[in-house]
Design goal:
alpha+beta; Beta-lactamase; eight-stranded antiparallel beta sheet
Length: 482
């Protein structure tokens, strides 16, 4: 049986990135049957995992350092490959990484814990716990805490008023006041609770409400209510002014160093850092290998289920649920920031959990590695063939570049705008950041920050009739507007 699922997290641009992953489950030429569903860990041995990590880093050039961990009945084990940075020390189980949208699992756990404490209820309107000057839009009914944690609020993935000063750190200057201003004028496109739409905005709003209700900062809540009870010494919001020597610097898809992200308004959506050791300890509690004060909250997270617009998918509080066969599922969350990819999952039937962390924002990422380690019947899908960094040449002169400027239509409501400023050329896709392009030759350009390329299709007149826009390996043709 083959399932196509969409996974994702924050993209390098700061926007939600979805990547279809084909999941093929085949046992003796047939679909996974009831007798084949795992009842104990199927995770490969350490040597096999090590080969996978080595191939991803050395052969595919899709990573700098990767740490993979497994928690099963025999306890935790980790496998590492690569380095903190080119020529630097090796990564280790205690190396910390930005984990992106895995943060949402922790935010949902805070919600579940506050429900257990009687501080909030899942069906409470979120507006109840926000300052009165923050207007939360409604349609059909009010947005509840559960709606935010299960992505059924009808809020968008990202705020349209996100206009970063620094594309390499796109959320740094987006404030809570900016989020409030967006919410005050936003009209929900559908009734609340009627459909699944992944929303970084929604979980950011949830984190703000929880902090307001508790009277503590989001960072303090993570520390006091999750990290300390679970013994997670390396899990916190942001790297701080003096990062640990074990912190893994981030890298772009070209394996070039990139800055770390700060996100004052979106801490609850993607602001945590953590290590494989810490996340394995977290999984040990989720899988009930040890008793913790958060056991009741964790149970509430997993049993709260809502549809996710796909018969093979559901959403729990903070977790995505992949239903591979009737009676066989696992819960997972993956994440991405400008320099990192991450994956966290567990299978209740085999009581096995997996974490994979990488300090490079490559197209291949680590989702397929994590799923394969959890169940080797799920194949690796590394999206081989990283686009190599083009060799920049002298850019065409201003007169030639000026011909390329204009609007190019990718689809309904989706335009790629090309602007020229002297000897420099920029592109901006609808709802995304304006970024500079660099010449590979007279007609082909690439972006140094993100995995994007633009090739102009030039007519005899020298004026482009269209362009080919490639983003994360996907090619799109855009016709120049008349």
């Amino acid at each position: 049986m083959v399932r196509a699922i969409a996974t994702g997290g924050w993209s390098e641009r700061g926007f939600w990135l979805t990547t279809p992953v084909a999941i093929a489950l085949v046992v003796n030429g047939a679909g996974l049957g009831a007798q084949d569903k795992p009842t104990s860990s199927l995770a490969p041995k350490a040597a096999a995992i090590h080969r996978i990590l080595a191939d991803r880093v050395d052969r595919d050039r899709q990573g700098v350092g990767i740490v993979a961990g497994v928690y099963e009945a025999t306890g935790p084990r980790t496998v590492v490959y690569g380095r903190l940075q080119q020529g630097g020390p090796p990564v280790s189980p205690t190396t910390t990484f930005e984990v992106g949208s895995i943060t949402k699992v922790f935010t949902a756990l805070l919600l579940a814990d506050m429900v257990q404490r009687g501080e909030v209820a899942l069906d409470d309107p979120v507006a109840r716990y926000l300052p009165p000057d923050v207007r939360v839009p409604e349609r059909g009914r009010a947005i509840t805490m559960e709606d935010l944690a299960t992505h059924r609020s009808s809020l968008p993935a990202d705020p349209p008023n996100l206009h970063p000063k620094d594309p390499a750190n796109p959320l740094a200057d987006y404030t809570v006041a900016d989020l409030s201003a967006f919410l005050s004028g936003y009209v929900l496109p559908t009734d609340v609770g009627t459909r699944y739409e992944y929303s970084n905005v929604g979980v950011a709003l949830l984190g703000l409400a929880l902090a307001q209700r508790a009277g503590h900062s989001y960072a303090d809540l993570i520390h006091d209510r999750i990290a300390v009870p679970l013994g997670l010494s390396r899990t916190r919001v942001g790297i701080g002014p003096e990062p640990s020597l074990e912190f893994a610097p981030g890298h772009s898809y070209l394996l070039e160093p990139v800055p770390n992200w700060t996100m004052p308004a979106f801490e609850a959506s993607g602001g945590l850092i953590s290590s494989a050791d810490d996340l394995l300890a977290f999984l040990s509690a989720m899988l009930r290998y040890r008793q913790t004060p958060l056991a009741g909250a964790m149970a509430l997270m997993t049993r709260t289920r809502r549809p996710a617009n796909d018969p093979s998918r559901e959403t729990a509080l903070g977790w995505d649920v992949l239903i591979l066969e009737p009676g066989y599922e696992f819960l997972f969350k993956d994440g991405a920031t400008g320099g990192y990819r991450s994956f966290l999952a567990f299978d209740e039937s085999s009581r096995t959990g997996v974490v994979v962390l990488s300090n490079a924002a490559t197209r291949a990422g680590v989702v397929d590695i994590g799923m394969h380690v959890l169940n080797p019947e799920i194949p690796l899908d590394p999206l081989k063939g990283r686009i190599p960094a083009p060799k920049p040449t002298a850019a065409p002169g201003p007169a030639v570049l000026a011909r390329y400027g204009g609007a190019y239509t990718l689809g309904p409501g989706d335009t790629l705008t090309v602007t020229v400023e002297g000897n420099r050329i920029f592109e901006q896709r609808s709802g995304q950041l304006k970024v500079e392009l660099f010449a590979e030759d007279a007609r082909r350009f690439y972006c140094r920050l993100f995995d994007e390329q633009v090739e102009f299709v030039v007519a005899a007149s020298g004026i482009p009739s269209s362009l080919v826009f490639t983003e994360n390996g996907e090619r799109h043709r855009a016709v120049r507007a008349k």
